[in-house]
Design brief:
By secondary structure, this protein is α+β, with helices and mostly antiparallel strands. It contains 4 helices and 7 strands, in the order E-E-H-E-E-H-H-H-E-E-E. The longest helix has 13 residues, at 91-103. It starts with 9 loop residues before the first strand and ends in an 11-residue tail after the last strand. It holds the Pfam family ART-PolyVal. Residues 11-143 form the ART-PolyVal-like domain.
């Protein structure tokens, strides 16, 4: 486990995973692009941890991009990141990124991270319409694993990420 860096504001969050690891590696693709994802709500993270692990984290975000995530848009892609992509990129670039996501796995790559880093951001805090939040940082150095629990329950049939 990493030694915490106390220079930045800390957000307590949670990460459910089937993988057993001690150091995070940013995902190459994700709902909001590449990075390290965590839920601010423990119950939401537990849904990803069925039969595996729930990690309690401190995520240091000095300057996160705060985004109001919404699935309300006219694009034929079930993604809360469409508005973010349309804000960060010009119409042609946004269209190309969205079409690439539609043609592949529905996720975005490192383009979002690069665009936000160029503007001085070190992560994203996405707040959904129901008030739930998802945090994303760009570097493993921003995350300290505080605790690891083994979760043995099955996924809830009512949970639909």
């Amino acid at each position: 486990m990493r030694k915490p860096n106390q220079l930045f504001p800390v957000l307590r969050c949670f990460h459910g995973t089937a993988a057993n690891f001690t150091v995070f590696h940013p995902s190459e693709r994700g709902s909001f692009g590449s990075g390290i994802y965590a839920a601010v709500d423990e119950a939401a993270a537990k849904e990803y941890a069925a039969g595996a692990f729930l990690l309690t984290l401190d995520m240091r975000l000095q300057n996160p991009y705060r985004y109001s995530a919404s699935f309300e848009h006219s694009v034929d892609l079930d993604s809360a990141a469409i508005g973010l992509v349309q804000t960060l990129f010009n119409e042609e670039q946004a269209g190309a990124l969205i079409q690439a996501a539609i043609a592949t796995d529905g996720y975005f790559g490192e383009e979002i991270q690069r665009a936000l880093k160029a503007r001085g951001y070190d992560g994203i805090i996405a707040t959904y319409e129901d008030g739930s939040q998802e945090a994303l940082c760009f570097s493993p150095e921003q995350v300290t694993i505080l605790d690891r629990q083994t979760i043995t329950h099955e996924l809830s049939a009512s949970f639909n990420p």
